[in-house]
Design goal:
The protein is an alpha/beta fold and 264 residues long. The chain contains six helices and 14 strands. The strands form three sheets. Strands 7, 8, 9, 10, 11, 12, 13 and 14 form an eight-stranded mixed β-sheet that branches.
Length: 264
């Protein structure tokens, strides 16, 4: 029975007409059901119209699927070393609360694990608007192997990973090797650490503004600011977010890094 698969012209060009036709006809070995790459709820290409997504690296390619009502069929190009981790981040069905991790161990709180809150916004630096993410955990972070009593090691652990303290938000942070921000189908999916492992992964892909997408597609770089719990909070406007960042920097409670964009 033919599947209700949408295969865009660019996906067909990558797959070839023969393979694309086999895919639509149901003759390929792809699964009959899938977790939508956008909303991550189940999908069935025999019962509902489905978009074919092709994640392409320099040497390999991976097929994924999404509800056609969520996103259109398209090709997403990634660096080869980002491909495996990026596809897992997009198609994975992990628990809603994603624990913070660094390479190679998990960060922890006392008594449990913390979840990262991520806010997107545009930050004015030296007269130019830059796409930024602000990361703040939901609880104090303890160094792995410790009880976490009486302290918060979040910034220290990040500095050990290569993030730098921010004293002036008007100065651009340096690039952090091996890290990247995954934007696919116009939505924010993950922050990847070396090895293409998700340091933070959205339970559901996060919407970003058209201005944010335009800025990141121009610069291909995202400024990632991190602060301990209680430093930033949920700010309803970008000017208030900027004020909170400046206060955190003045108090020695802010680190940052510039990360390249993975995906589109």
């Amino acid at each position: 029975m033919p599947r209700m698969l949408d295969v865009s012209a660019d996906v067909r060009a990558e797959l070839g007409n023969e393979e694309a036709d086999r895919l639509v006809a149901g003759d390929s070995e792809t699964p009959a059901s899938y977790a939508c790459a956008s909303c991550r709820t189940p999908g069935d290409p025999e019962q509902e119209r489905t978009s074919t997504l092709l994640f392409v690296g320099e040497e390999t390619a991976v097929l994924a699927f999404a509800h056609a009502t969520c996103i259109p069929s398209q090709v997403v190009r990634l660096a080869e070393d980002q491909l495996a981790g990026a596809v897992e981040s997009i198609t994975g069905t992990e628990e809603p609360a994603v624990p913070m991790t660094t390479d190679p161990t998990s960060l922890n709180t006392a008594p449990g694990q913390a979840v990262l809150g991520v806010t997107s916004g545009l930050i004015l630096v030296d007269g130019d608007l830059h796409p930024a993410l602000v990361v703040e955990p939901t609880a104090p972070i303890a160094r792995p192997g410790t009880t976490g009593e009486g302290g918060d090691d979040f910034l220290t652990l990040l500095i050990e990973q290569g993030f730098v303290p921010v004293h002036d938000v008007n100065q651009l942070p340096g690039a952090l090797d091996g890290w990247s921000v995954l934007l696919a189908m116009g939505r924010l999916h993950a922050i990847l650490q070396p090895g293409a492992v998700a340091w933070w992964k959205a339970h559901q892909p996060l919407q970003v503004t058209e201005g944010w997408r335009a800025a990141v597609n121009k610069s291909h770089t995202v400024l990632v600011f991190c602060a301990p719990v209680g430093s930033i909070g949920q700010q309803p406007r970008e000017d208030l977010l900027r004020d909170a960042l400046e206060k955190a920097a003045a108090g020695g409670r802010l680190v940052a890094a510039a990360m390249p964009l993975a995906g589109t």
